[in-house]
Amino acid sequence: MKFNDIARHKQLFVLALPMILSNITAPLLGLVDTAVIGHLEFAYYLGGSTVGAMIITAITWLCGFLRMSTTGLSAQAFGQDNSELNCLILLRGIIVASAIGLSVIVFQSFYLDLALSLAGGSEQVQFYAREYSSVRVWGLPAALANLVILGWLLGNHKTKVVLWLIIATNLINLLLDLLFVIGFGWQVKGVAAATLIAEYSGLFIGLSLIFANFKQKFFGLFTSTKHLIARITEKAALLSYFKLNRDILIRTLCLEICFIFMTFQGARLGDDVIAANAILMNFLMLISFGLDGIANAAEVMVGKAKGENNQKSMFVSVNVALFWTGIFAVMYSLLFYTGGQYFISTISSIPEVVEYAQRHMIWIIALPLLACWCYLYDGVYVGLMQAHVMRNSMLVATFGCFFPVWWLLKDYGNHGLWAAFSVFMLARGVTLAWHYQRNRYSF
Q: Could you read off the pLDDT of 366-379 as tens digits, one per residue?
């Protein structure tokens, strides 16, 4: 291996390791939430909190374009050494995020009624889902602004800052979880309140970290507030920003439809099924956020290479990221193959839920190997800001693979649902890899 290749491996891990650690804290916290609720007496507590969380995270996932576009745009601005553009990307993103969050709060009654009617489930699941989501919805402005902050810090190679920000936020959430649920006995509402407070705490900490790290670089860039507002609201810049985010939004909407369908269809199969799927989906989140650490590093490296107009650097970055994505995928599969049953029994003490989850563990073992490529190539295309390619890939995988496969296998119940999801994730990786290999010299 050449020295430059070794240097690129080191560069990848300098960026990826903090992101892997910080990304994994989110699903680990989800597992703590699940474990706290999962040890209550009835499965409908866990089912209700799962449906309620999906209703709220549907918005944050749908607005994932805020994180993705901010990372890609800021990485390219970083490569160009354009401080003014970098600052505008951050401010524009926070304004858009806040506007979306406040809009959902204004129309929350309509949104929650519609989402719960689509979710189905037992009367108890419906009750606790509404209780959870009616608290969490007030945290959306902070949650969406945090996406922008995380994406911007990542694009500016501040992965260690991202790590400490996420750890601090999740630690607050964890401690409040234990206090509200176990200490105060607030059950589902306690988990929701803990997350709400943690989201606003994260926003305050994130803005403080940005001010501490970048105040000298950005101070004095704009001659007046009027000048700043004029730059943020430039017509050409806004049109380009919303066009980029439109394609990422469509891509994310398709992904969201599949996740929501998994949750809602599980609810229709029974309380034990949705509770078991909640455990398995947390494992999936652990896998995806871990592999996303490599993809996040690829975003930054590819975006920087694009900003520098260095095609060779881009090729090396993608190949190194592909290699380590495969290694991590194998490690995840082995982890769940050897320890999956233990993890499930640790999270829930309800025998029916534990037994049902264990019967479906095979899908969690297979998914890292099937899905790792879509995570990596998503990162590559975020760095390239080729959002239309991600959009097209997701449309094919969703409507050409997920729903047709589920329809063919629906008589197999939950196994058919997980089979359709596995084919969906594989199709995303295959279509993006095919496009990259055909067009890599034209980027």
A: 999 999 999 999 98
DSSP type of residue 81: T
Share of residues in the chain with pLDDT > 70 (%): 91
| Rounded-to-5 percentages of helix, strand, coil across the chain | 90, 0, 10
Select from 72, 108, 101 the least CA-distant residue to 89. Answer: 72
| Residue found under tokens 């009835």 | 42
- What tokens appear for 162 in the block? 């991202």
Domain ranges of the chain: 3-438
pLDDT, one tens digit per residue, over 303-318 is 888 888 888 888 888 9
Residue 28 pLDDT: 55
**Angle formed by the axes of helices 123-136 and 43-62, nearest 10°:** 40
Query: What is the three-state SS of 12-80?
Result: HHHHHHHHHHHHHHHHHHHHHHHHHHHCCCCHHHHHHHHHHHHHHHHHHHHCCHHHHHHHHHHHHHHHH
pLDDT at res. 181: 79
**What is residue 310's three-state secondary structure?**
coil
Tokens of 342: 């233990």
Give me the pLDDT at residue 99, please: 93
Dig out the tokens for 113 from the structure. Answer: 């009624």
Q: Which two tokens stand for residue 368?
A: 């890292």
Cβ–Cβ under 8 Å, residues 217 and 83: yes
User: Can you list the alpha helix ranges (DSSP code H) found in 178-234?
Assistant: 187-218, 225-232
Residue with tokens 């998914």: 367
Q: Residue 333 corresponds to which tokens in the numbers above? A: 């599969």
What are phi and psi for residue 220, nearest 5 degrees?
A: 85, 5
Structural contact between residues 222 and 91, judged by C-beta atoms closer than 8 angstroms:
no
User: Taken in order 153, 159, 160, 165, is the CA torsion positive or negative?
Assistant: positive
Contact 241, 88 (CB under 8 A): no
